[in-house]
Amino acid sequence: MSALIELRTVGKTFSGGKVALEDVSLALQEDQPRFIAVVGESGSGKTTLARLLLGMIEPTTGTVRYRGEDLAGLSGARRNAFRREVQAVFQDPYEVYNPFYRVDHVLTTPVRKFRLAATRTEGRGLIEAALRSVGLRPEEILGRYPHQLSGGQRQRIMVARALLLRPRLIVADEPVSMVDASLRATILSSLRRLHEEMRISILYITHDLATAYQVADSIIVLYRAAVAEAGHVERVVKAPLHPYTQLLIGSIPLVSTERSWVEDKPAAGRPGGAGCHFADRCPSAMDHCLSAAPSLFQVAPDHAAACFLRADAPALAEGALSSVLG
Ligand SMILES: Nc1ncnc2c1ncn2[C@@H]1O[C@H](COP(=O)(O)OP(=O)(O)OP(=O)(O)O)[C@@H](O)[C@H]1O
Ligand SMILES: [Mg+2]
Question: What pTM was computed for the model?
Answer without folding.
Answer: 0.90
